[in-house]
Amino acid sequence: MIRPRAAIATAFVILVLAQTGAQLGQAQVPSNSQKSAFLIQTWGVDDGLPQSSVISIAQTPDGYLWFGTFDGLVRFDGVRFSVFDSSTTPGMAVGGIIKLYADRSGRLWIGTAEGGLSVLEKGVFRKLGPSDGLSPGGGSSFLETGQGSLLLASGHLATRKFDGARFVETAETTPIAKIKASSFEHDRSGVLYASLPAGLAWLEGTEWRTVTFPLPPPGLAPVPTNAFALTPASAGGLWVTVNGQILRLEKGAWAENLGNIPWLPAIRPFTMLEDSSGLLWIGSYGAGLYHRRGMAWVRISAEEGLPNGVIRALLEDREGSIWVGTDGGGLARLKPKLFTNYTIKDGLPENIVTSLCEVDQGSLWIGTHGGGLTVMRGSEFKKIEFPPRTNNRWIWSLYLDSSSTLWGGTFGPRLFYFRDGKYGEMEIPDAPEKRSINAIVKDRHGVLWAGTRGGLLCYSNGIPRTFTAGDGLADNSVHALFETADGVLWIGTEEGLTSLSNGRFTRVAGDQLKKVYGVFALGADLWVGMKKVGLARIRDGRVSVYRKADGLPHDHVESIVADGMGNLWASGHHGIFRVALAELDAFSEGRKKTIDAFLYGRDDGLGSRECPGGHQHNVWQSSDGRLWFGTVGGLSVIDPHQVKPNILPPPVWIEDIFTDAKEQRSAIQSASTNEMIVPAGTKQLEIHYTALSFLAPGQVLFKYRLDGYDQDWIPVGNRRVAYYQGLPPGPYHFRVIACNNNGVWNKTGAALAVVMQPFFWQTIWFRGAAVMGVLLSGLFVYHRRVSMLQREQRAQREFSARLIASQEQERKRVAGEIHDSLGQNLIVIKNRADVALSGDNVVPLADQLAEISRSASEAIQEVRTIAHNLRPYQLDRLGLTKALEALVKQIKSSGLALHAEIVSIDRLFAPAHEINLYRVVQESMNNILKHSGAKTAWVTVKKEKARVTISVRDDGRGFDYPALLNDPKGKRGLGLTGLIERARSMGGDLQIESAPGQGTQLTFTVRFPLPPGP
Amino acid sequence: MTQNSGSKPKLKILVADDHPSFRRAFKSLFHPDEAEVLECSDGYEALIQYGEHRPHWVVMDYDMAPMDGLTATESIRKQFPEARILLITLHDGDDIREAVRKAGAVAFVRKENLMQARDIIRGTPAPQV
Question: What phi and psi values does residue A798 have, to the nearest 5 degrees?
Answer without folding.
Answer: -65, -40
